[in-house]
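Q: Please design a sequence for this.
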């Protein structure tokens, strides 16, 4: 009887240990929910003498719009692309960056991005952005994963808050946010009024054939893209500046 009881206890301990063993994902699909605060955008875009127009737009529009993106990953390769549609969106203007398709080979530090600037499609080939992250002790659970916070400044002035998990080995993330010791599942740009947070992580098999870089668009690198957008929107005021920042992320 004692031997049977001991066997049951040991079996239970083994099952508990197995249940608590960490699982490290090397491939799968992540759905990201991108939220944009339209009221904050209006406040930034319009001057005080345009307050009547701004107030009228706030009555017409919801405060937040929501968009969805998918991030496929396998090893050191990721593909970020538009996901399912949200038919409930009512937008002030087309959101910059919502057609982005971004392919990263993280081990080679190479990226290929297809970006639509109004009606012009660009194929941007460049190195992945080097980000100097500062990892903190703050933690947060996102889509069932324990994540740690990291902060950074990109493009000289854009403050970034990111949350990453080392339970997903691939050091990628949405848009151009990479370089942490694990997958980034949450990004907030407080002064740009945008967030990306994972809503679900699927441990799907992702064959290499699904991770193909985009091929269409006018060839460019980030410098050429910035020069083109800046030249085209030089007379567009605050909206032009905002559009440029978001497109260059």
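A: Design:
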């Amino acid at each position: 009887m004692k031997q049977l009881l001991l066997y049951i206890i040991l079996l239970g301990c083994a099952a508990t240990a197995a249940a608590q063993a960490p699982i490290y994902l090397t491939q799968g699909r992540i759905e990201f929910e991108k939220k944009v605060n339209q009221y904050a955008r209006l406040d930034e875009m319009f001057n005080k003498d345009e307050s009547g127009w701004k107030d009228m737009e706030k009555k017409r529009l919801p405060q937040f719009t929501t968009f969805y993106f998918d991030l496929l990953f396998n090893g050191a390769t990721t593909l970020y692309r538009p996901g399912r549609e949200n038919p409930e969106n009512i937008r002030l203007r087309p959101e910059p960056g919502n057609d982005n398709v971004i392919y990263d080979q993280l081990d080679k530090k190479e990226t290929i991005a297809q970006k639509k600037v109004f009606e012009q499609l660009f194929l941007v080939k460049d190195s992945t952005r080097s980000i100097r992250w500062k990892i903190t002790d703050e933690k947060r659970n996102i889509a069932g994963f324990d994540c740690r916070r990291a902060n950074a400044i990109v493009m000289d002035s854009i403050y970034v808050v990111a949350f990453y998990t080392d339970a997903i080995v691939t050091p990628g993330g949405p848009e151009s946010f990479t370089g942490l010791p694990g997958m980034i599942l949450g990004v907030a740009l407080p002064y740009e009024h945008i967030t990306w947070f994972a809503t679900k992580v699927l441990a799907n098999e992702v064959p290499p054939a699904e991770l193909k870089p985009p091929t269409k668009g006018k060839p460019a690198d980030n410098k050429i893209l910035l020069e083109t957008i800046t030249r085209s929107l030089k007379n567009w005021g605050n909206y032009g500046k905002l559009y440029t920042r978001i497109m260059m992320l």
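Q: Thanks. Anything notable?
A: The chain has one domain: 23-221. The helical segments are 2-20, 38-45, 51-60, 222-232, 237-247.
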